[in-house]
Specification:
222 residues, mainly alpha, Glycerol uptake facilitator protein, globular
Length: 222
């Protein structure tokens, strides 16, 4: 049975705009930075943080503003999404990611689908993605417990930091990783490297869920 279509549409649209922003701002930043990778990354970072705040604030009341299969997976572990609905969320997030990368390419008059060629491979990169996703999930779960009205700000700030303190530049999102594997631009990732990112992202998310559950356990908070 199809889940609430408003929620699925929200997840599709939110992920579309997230990926379009990540890819589009990467293309713009690279073209304007004069070859300075640090300046390009800064532009990419600020655009991503900004759109995350907007999307979570505006679409959070509709679908929870996951826009990320790792987040939906954790909410399934929490019992707040049944597996069938979680699967539908993830499908629409991935569809939104693919639509987002095509939209970004169309806006910059590029081929709609491109093979990612930027090499992002190695144990340090995979560790970075695990850490990045662990931190994102921990931020969301603890933020929802302690200050839910600030989750949009917390996530945006965390991703801003993650772009700079991880060697992978903090994808922390399997759907975004999928989309970025189909762009040959600043934010791209080689298609063959994508599965390693996705595995470590889900592992980081699961670890964050179980550790935060222990940390916030009422039994141990007295």
């Amino acid at each position: 049975m199809i889940f609430d279509t408003r929620k699925l549409a929200s997840e599709f649209i939110g992920t579309l705009f997230l990926v379009a922003t990540v890819v589009g701002s990467g293309i713009m930043a690279e073209s304007l930075s004069g070859g300075n990778a640090a300046v390009a990354l800064l532009g990419n970072t600020l655009a991503t943080a900004g759109i995350l705040y907007v999307l979570i604030t505006c679409l959070g009341p509709v679908s929870g503003a996951h826009f990320n299969p790792a987040v939906s997976f954790v909410f399934c572990l929490k019992g707040e999404l049944v597996p069938e609905h979680c699967t539908q969320y993830i499908i629409f997030q991935c569809l939104g990611a693919m639509a987002g990368v095509m939209l970004a390419h169309a806006m910059f008059d590029q081929s709609l689908i491109q093979a990612g060629v930027k090499i992002r491979f190695g144990s340090n990169i995979w560790l970075s993605e695990g850490v990045a996703t662990f931190g994102l999930i921990a931020t969301i779960l603890t933020g929802l417990r302690h200050k839910p009205e600030s989750v949009a700000s917390l996530v945006s700030l965390y991703i801003t930091a993650g772009y700079w303190f991880t060697s992978s530049t903090s994808f922390a999102n399997p759907a975004v990783t999928l989309g970025r594997s189909f762009t040959d631009s600043f934010s791209g990732i080689r298609l063959s490297d994508m599965p390693f990112f996705v595995v470590t992202q889900f592992l980081g998310a699961a670890l964050a869920y179980y550790l935060v559950r222990k940390l916030l356990s009422k039994k141990h908070s007295q």
